[in-house]
Amino acid sequence: MRTEKEKMLQEDLYIASVDELREDARKSRQLTRLFNRTTEEEMGYRKELLQQLFKQVGKEIYIEPPFRCDYGSNTSIGENFYANFDCIFLDVANINIGDNVLFGPRVSLLTPGHPIDAEVRAAGLEFGQSIHIGNHVWIGGNVVVNPGVTIGDNTIIGSGSVVTKDIPENVIAAGNPCRVIRPITKEDQAYWEKEQAAYWEEVKKG
């Protein structure tokens, strides 16, 4: 017979109020409490705590305290990740974040779901659906990503969006519910490469 944790990770109905999941949550609360109390002089210690908290992390990861998560152990993060203040990861199902991803402040990744039927919901049953964030994604401040969503590579999500469905790669999307506004084009690339070249030229001149 499957444990409640196994049911949870397999995205089936489960009950969270069991000893195993309570212990996992306790460890997460402890690690995030320690992390949120660190100072700017303890950057190495911050990284150690995040390595203990998450299932997998790249070598370069930076999260601005305060930060909150359910378990941490169900979240995998790639290289060169940055998250601004007050981000929340509810990872009852897996959260997978690619390389070179940027989060604005108060981004929330929410994998939990609850039954529509009130009596079933009151019985304490819930479920989760995984969230997948591709490589080179930028998510603006106060974005909410709902259960089961995938965001494709190189995509930008505008601030304040509520992402309820999958968003493809190479687009700018925003709104509530979040919708594709336009593709990211070669003209965008040319413009920003020109701006970058001008920046480095100024740096070179001193």
UniProtKB/TrEMBL annotation:
<keyword id="KW-0677">Repeat</keyword>
<comment type="similarity">
    <text>Belongs to the transferase hexapeptide repeat family.</text>
</comment>
<dbReference type="InterPro" id="IPR018357">
    <property type="entry name" value="Hexapep_transf_CS"/>
</dbReference>
<protein>
    <recommendedName>
        <fullName>Acetyltransferase</fullName>
        <ecNumber>2.3.1.-</ecNumber>
    </recommendedName>
</protein>
<dbReference type="Pfam" id="PF12464">
    <property type="entry name" value="Mac"/>
</dbReference>
<keyword id="KW-0808">Transferase</keyword>
<feature type="domain" description="Maltose/galactoside acetyltransferase">
    <location>
        <begin position="5"/>
        <end position="59"/>
    </location>
</feature>
<keyword id="KW-0012">Acyltransferase</keyword>
<dbReference type="InterPro" id="IPR001451">
    <property type="entry name" value="Hexapep"/>
</dbReference>
<dbReference type="InterPro" id="IPR011004">
    <property type="entry name" value="Trimer_LpxA-like_sf"/>
</dbReference>
<dbReference type="Pfam" id="PF00132">
    <property type="entry name" value="Hexapep"/>
</dbReference>
<dbReference type="InterPro" id="IPR024688">
    <property type="entry name" value="Mac_dom"/>
</dbReference>
<dbReference type="InterPro" id="IPR039369">
    <property type="entry name" value="LacA-like"/>
</dbReference>
